[in-house]
Amino acid sequence: MEKTREKLSTLLREKEVSAILGLRMSHGHPIPYLFVDPEALKDWVADEMNRYPLTKVLIKIARKHPDLMIGIPVRGCEERSLTELFKNHQLMPDRVKAIGIVCSQELANGCRCEKPYPSSAEEGETAKPVEDFSDLEKIEGLPEEERFRYWMDQFGKCIKCYGCRNVCPACFCPTCTLEDRSLIKPGGMPPEIPIFHLHKAYHMADRCIDCGLCEEACPMGIPVRRLYRKVRKTVKDLFGYVPGEDKDQKGPLEFLGDGSYELPGPGTIRISDSETGRGFD
Known about the structure:
It contains ten helices and seven strands. It is an alpha/beta fold. The chain folds into three domains: 2-111, no CATH class; 157-245, no CATH class; 250-281, no CATH class. Strand 6 (260-262) and strand 7 (268-270) form a beta hairpin.
């Protein structure tokens, strides 16, 4: 990664960016770090074994310091995350400088990644795409009653730690609807299963970049990625939309206009949020 390290150093030295958001090792673990000194980049690491949702950190930095120009090394999934965050107005494209880094074939295989590479990179060989939906096909091949029982058993393991939500690079709402006191009675948060998982899957339908961090973060081993891959595949089949691929293509669940959507028949249902244009009341 020496060519990439030199690229990052050059961006800082020539003041093309105010800082580089990356990872460095601390007590044997990679942690987020904001590099402002080019010399400090000797400690920058691109650790394949310990992935971290840096784009979530970037959102927090951008909200507090909107004028900063931040450079960020990105793998293919992280670049897709940036695309969705740009489209959902969580980050400004002219305030972010993405520097592509490639994934090894071993990582691509482990992640079952359909696009394990960014649009450009300073060095390294491009890994081959991995289209493996065998885990999903196995579940879909079960009778409906067995599928229902399978998912209820899996959701029943949930300790409601919010780990899948907190690590998700596509979850960016300042206030999560699952914690809204007007929706959930006090003492009842988070809501009972399976509403939490189904609600999140619904919100992820046109935003999930299939990075798999949600499943990695789950302390109970719930295969939540299978659920998100299912809704992601459904959106692709129905609308031809793949989250994170086209920066100009609107997500099918994002509606424009006056904040309402006309349903067939009488009546109108409000579906959009005043800040983000999203939401389903």
